[in-house]
Every structure is written in C-alpha cells, then in structure tokens.
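Recap quiz, item 2
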Amino acid sequence: MKFKDLYKYLLLGGVIIIAATSCKRDPNDPGKEYAPNMYRPVGYEPYKQDAANPVNPMGLTMRLPVAGTVYRRNYRTSFGDGDSARRDLMVYNIPADSISVSERVLKNPIPLNDNTLAEGKVLYERYCQHCHGATGAGDGKVGATYKGVPNYASDAYKNLNEGHIFHVITHGRNRMWPHGSQINPEERWKIVHYVQKLQKGA
Amino acid sequence: MVHAQDSTAAAGAAPAGGAGGGDAAKGEALFKNNCAQCHAVTEERVVGPGLKGASARHDFAWLSKWVRNSQAVIAAGDPYAVKIYNEYAKAQMTSFPNLSDDDIKGIFAYIDKAGTAAPAAAAAPAAGGATSGGSASAQGGGPSDLFVLVLAALVVVMLLVLGVLLVIVSLLSKAVGTETENVNKGDFMARLGNSLKGIAGDPAIRSATIWIFVLLVLKATIDGAYNVGVQQGYAPKQPIAFSHKLHAGEYKIDCNYCHTGVNRGKSAHIPSANICMNCHGVIKKESPEIQKIYTSIENNQPIEWVRVHNLPDLAYFNHAQHVNVGGLECQNCHGDVEKMEVIQQRSSLTMGWCIDCHRKTEVNTKDNKYYDKLVQLHSGESKEALKVADIGGLECSKCHY
C-alpha cells in the first residue's frame, strides 16, 4: 500500500536526522567554519597563528624583542596633574643583586595623591593581594599555601624605603619572584605608594 | 651596645641554656607578626626550620645574635650557622635588629610553650575542613535530584495521557462498528492496528504529517546553518591541565595577574612561563603537569596552548576598550571562568551577541568630561540613558575595516 511506504520513508528519514544531530559535539572540535580565508588572518598576528612559521625558530610567528629594547611607554611617561607633568626615562638598569643601590638612588617620581593611591590600591589588588593579603599582613589565600610572606607592618619591614619596595617588585627577593615583566615601572611606583600606606598599618 | 652586653650576662644567669623567663604572651604577638610566615613552633619545616627545641640547642647569646643579624653569624664562620644556611639553599633570613632581649626571650618562651601544645590544636582545623566539604557536596547534589524528580513526574503524566488516548481510540473504533466486528473483540492490539491504519490512510492526516516533517527538517537545517562558525561550547584539551577553578576560584588570583594585557591592549595575553614560575618555582614542583613547564623552560620551547575564543579576522575586538574603558567584568563575556576546570567558550561571540550588548549597555559617563557634550546632545533627543549604540556601537566600521 502506498501510504505505508510514505510513513516508512518518513520514519527512516527521521531516524537518520536524529542520529546525525543528537550526538553531543566533541569539546575538542571547534565546529564547522565558513570561508576560512576570511576568518584566519593573512598577515602575521600574535595569538592567531595556526600553522608553523617556516622562517622563525620553533615555528613561532611572535619573536622576542632585541635584547636591551626599551618599551616606549617607559621611555616617555606622563602622570600627575594634567598632561604637562611629564617625566622622562623611567628606565632603571639597576641589577637584581644591587638592592642597596636602589634603596639609596631610587625616588618615587609619581606624586602621592588620592588618585595615584587609589590606582595603586587597584594594582595592588591585581598583582599582590593574593599573596600579601588585603592589609599587607601576608595572609592572602596563596600566601597561606606559599608560606614565607611577610607582614608589611612588622618591625623588620615597616621602615623599608620606596627604592627597596620598587626593587623587590622588579627583581623579587628571597621567596618572591620577579614581577617586572607583568607590571610596568609606572604601575610599580603606584603600588609602592600603596604598600607604603600598608606599612604604616591599615 | 649596652643591650648586647646585658644579654650575654642574662644568658649566663639562666641555667637551662635557653631564654628562660620570657613573657610568652608578648612573645606570641611578636612571633605571629615577625616569624610565623617562615617558621612553625613545631618541628615542621615551613620556609625556615621548625623552631621546637631551638632554645635548648643554643644559648641565648647565639639565638639573639642570629635573630638580629643571621648573615653576620654566617660570615663569622659559626659552623652550625653555615650548616643550616647551606641546608636551606642559602636563603637569607630577614634580620630583626629592633627586637630587644626581652622580645626575643618572649618569642622563644612562646615557642617552647606552643610547640608542645601545637599537635592537638592542628587536628581541630582539619576536622572542621572535612565537615564543610561534606556540606558543600550535599548542596551540589540538590539541583540534580530535583531535576530527576521533575523528569519522573513528566513520565508518569505522559503515561497517563497515553492510557487515556488508548481508551478513546478503543471507544471510537467500537462506535465505528462494522469493520471491527470481523476481528476478535478481545484482541485489543488488532483493533488498535486497524484504527491506526484507518487514521494513516486519511489524506488530511497524511499531508499534515508530511508538512510537519518538512518544517522540522527545514528548522533543523536553518539552525545548523546558523551554527556554522559559532564555537560556543568549545573546550579543547590543553597541553597542560591548568585549572582556572583552582587558581582563580579557590586561590582568588586576579585574572589580571596572568592575563596582563587585558587592561592595556587588544589581546588579554596568554601568560608566559615566567609568570607560572612566580609561584611554581617554589610550590608543587613534583606535579607532572608543572614538570611540563620546567621542561618547556629548559628547552626554551613555548607551551602550545590551544586558543579557545576565536574571533574571525574580519572583526576587530579590543580587550582594553571593553575592560579598562568600558569597565566590564571578564565574566560578562567569558562566563564563570573561576568555576571551570577546563576553559570553555560560554558566549556565542556572534555579531548578534555583540550588537545585543551594545544596544542594552549604558555608557558610564559619570565624572568624564569627554562625554559631557554627547550626553547633552543625546538628552535633547531622547529620554533614555546614553547607550553604547548611541555613541557608534552599531557602526559597521567600528569593528569591520
């Protein structure tokens, strides 16, 4: 009978469609892509590389800057009240083992005011708080596991000067590893302001 | 210094070798403030050695010299000092020149007192942790139980509906009459089959079935076509099993700590291995996953993370613009990253999704002179707040150029 065939085909078609669509997508599969030549960059872009670069070592498209390269923003910086307050050359070449030099030489070029202190607090929360704790007592969540995180307000630490703090952020000290690659000098000096506030006890 | 001379005299007077007669209560405060970060009162090694029994091992003069300036003691060639310095990988102990003799005596009095009491106290927090873990897992089970219950109720309701329908079918087939009389009345299935055949043969029902089928296929096709290029739910296996749930969720490390570019530039940045080493240079060194980072650093070979959120090259997106200027939280677009064991793309990242947010989101114009005139113009035309769409958030060339 004709209608029987019709329902058979519909049933068959339905089973095929359900079988084809009901499987959960493999989480490793990014899915189908339409016109990949509009999706993938033609030029070399960082973080968007999907084939090995034949020229560079290890097939990388990104390359390290030449040794000694100075980031322009560290070279010419502006902060303070209005854009005219310009201080140049925030470049520090004090080696990691010369903390006493930093203590003597370095002065915080960023004026201390409510704005810079507030910015310092935000930066402190981003880069320091998980170890050093909200009040600088060394009681952050990571600090509790990491151990050896000092209390800023304790006798041995409360009098350390700004150059010392800047140097420690840049190059690390004892158990603390260098953070210079994550935080630029201007941000470091703002953090120094906030740390000095915490040294006085929050 | 007068203090130093006094201290040797005091140490000579105290026969037990250690810092007898210190004020333990005062010492406790000092210990917690200055020493507890690196030393335990038990024999447990934290950063520096456990201090239980230290006052019995050394006389007070040695202890006070060490506390005030350990480097000087090492430089003087004291054999025990040199031994312990080398044992602890030449980590320098912070000097505490400001601590008075009484302070140091107090600290060691506290250590002697607490070191014996500590094992009992240490057991208590562990038990507390276990109970809180239990309650958390019970809470986690709650929603899924409810879900199962709802499903079961649905199945029961559907079975009831099916039963009612069958009763109706049998009644109807009885009413239709003649054809069913040929069949044995007790054979329910045969009667059901006959009536279904009757229904299937009906041209109206046949064409309706065909149409429903065609429409369903059409909808599935359109849905499928719209999902081409949408990678929502993409959660690839990464070369290192890094857990955002542990780092961002449990340890509360700020997203910015590793994704340093998010406030400064187009890309949020995948952290390089040196940022991992800020912690993992010291902790969890033995884990096979962390070992992969060491191997990568030793061979100067980059870790090939798999990028999860891929925007097509024809669309421009800038993180700093959204996070720094717009003040958006990372979770707005990336979902609850702090709860993800494996990172997954939660939002669709389609153009409709972008536009939708640009239409809804109000611009924070407060205390920003840049927007003053725009707000003034906008409030003349519209009563609604200034949205991203009003300042060019829907312009094609903002993102496509």
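The CA atoms of residues 172 and 178 of chain A lie 4 Å apart.
The two ends of chain A are 89 Å apart (CA to CA).
End of item.
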